[in-house]
Amino acid sequence: MELILDFIAAYWKPVFEIALLAAFFYYTFLLFRGTRGAAVLTGFVIVLLGIVGVTQIFQLDVINWILSHFLAFLAIAVLVIFQPELRRALAEVGSRQFFWSPKQRGQMIDVLVETARSLSQKRCGGLMAVEREIGFRGVIETGVLIGAKATPELLTTIFFPNTPLHDGGVVLRGDEIVAAACVFPLTQRKGLSASTGMRHRAAMGLTEETDAVVVVVSEETGEISVAHRGHLVQGLDVDGLSAFLTTTLTTVSRRSTWLADLTRRIFGNTMIRETVAKENGSGGQTDEFESHDSSHPRERSDKHHEEAKS
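The structure corresponding to this sequence follows.
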């Protein structure tokens, strides 16, 4: 026992420092993964390591001296180069919403899927953003406040051509339509296809700055797309959209806070599901049940139609 205590007393600081550094690099990787800054960060690290390696091998004292003094300005360079990623990270750390009601998630998935199917069949363009942990009040203020419960009928009416609110995007929070005719920021990413329309660029731009999920329906082709974390997934059918939204919205956000991510990875999803169930008073009802129940909106819709006819 004394040997164990002596070992802990002698090595707890190095172990603690290694754990902190590992956590720092791990969450830095999560922050930049899948973003535009990932390639920049990779290139920056490769160039820096290459220069340091060359100077150490060939004993280039002048360059070593310059590099040692250049590191003092590295913090400023990081702030400038990775400003969008750092801003998003700070916004996520300060986010207030930890869990989202499973009932609201399931209802929102049904509404989005039914609306996308209706707009696709009618060849009406649509742009619907689901607000999550990171709010975007500035975007909401560019539109018209609605404050109504989200339904497929209301959303389809909003996007019907020549109506006053059909231009721009709709912002949804929980099961409520917050605002319509909102102006979303356009992505500045280069190399996009010429066929990528303004709605798709706006969807990508908003998801690059926030953790929102944006559903897009093309007015020209009726194609359904969804944007998340700056990536655009195109050519989805109704089932594909439902599966994507179920996977994205019914799981506890991995990026809500570092504590939520660490808790889920250590204790697993079971404890979080039990916590959500207790908060919503649902007893034994879990997110898996909600996911399964919300993954077939078409079948439930057909049953509703048959019951209405009867």
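Residues 2-93 form one domain.
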